[in-house]
Amino acid sequence: MAKLLSSLVGGQLAGFVLVLARVAPLFIVAPLFSAKVIPARVKGIIAVGISIGLTPIAMQGQHVPGSVIPLAELVIEGILTGLGFAFSIAVLFAAIDSASAFVDVISGFSFGGVIDPMNGGQSGVFAQFYSVVGVVIFLVIGGDAWLLRGIARTFQLVPLTSGPRIDSLVGGAEQVFSTVFGSALEIVAPVLLAMLITDVAFGVVSRVVPQLNVFAVGFPTKVVVSLLLVGATIPFAAHWISGQLSSSVGAALEALHVA
To answer: Stretch 133-160: mean pLDDT, rounded?
Structure first.
């Protein structure tokens, strides 16, 4: 088996397998690449194509072992490296999903949950809206190119025949995960503040005019206010996503160190 692997295309096949192990997590965790609207067969074809293109770059100056056990260890390390990078970027969309969930709950749109075509789960109206807007902004600012350049950069930080430091990888993942809640509040802070002011205003009105049916009037009012505020804050959300994407890629690469 060792002779077979070392003889096939001068070891390029083994290198391709290692590159594919690092690229594959993008199509499991990373935003857009892991979307359920993309068929699994298409994801596989794209992953193989990207791996073929990156293999000559990753193989420069590297000697891939021909033995099965060392090669299997390198495959596992490559998967961990790819997962660490993809997870740091996926946190960005996790923050967007959390922000949209806040708006859905406080505006009342959570009662009308429907199937989200991006992730296949049930979500509110604003959750779907922010999900689609996030994907569109991600494509417009070249987020897919950011991810591909980032995964190519990982082969310089963590060579193909080396593995990442587990403590650094876990610490980086923990650090980016801890920012989800704060990032979600940054996105929808104006909307949440406006909803809070609206609730306080209706609370005062219910005390002054007890005959007024606050629930009948308040629900459509909150819907209108939330729609206006979400529409007005979309440009700021787009700017936030653009800046956060670059910092997320930088944080992901910074967390990768050779063991």
So the answer is: 82
Domain that holds residue 240: 2-254
What is the 8-class DSSP label of residue 227?
A: H
Domain count along the chain: 1
- Note whether residue 259 is domain-resident: no
Going from the C-alpha of 165 to that of each of 101, 175, 176, 216, the distances in angstroms are 35, 15, 17, 58
* 75 found inside a domain: yes
What are the tens digits of pLDDT across the range 109-133? 666 555 555 555 566 677 777 777 7
Phi, psi of 114 (to 5 degrees): -130, 180
Q: Exposed, middle or buried, 256 (CB in 10 Å: 0-12/13-18/19+)?
A: buried
Q: Is 231 inside a domain boundary?
A: yes
**217 is a domain residue:** yes
Type and span of the H or E element at 121: none
DSSP-derived secondary structure letter, 29 = T
pTM of the model: 0.73
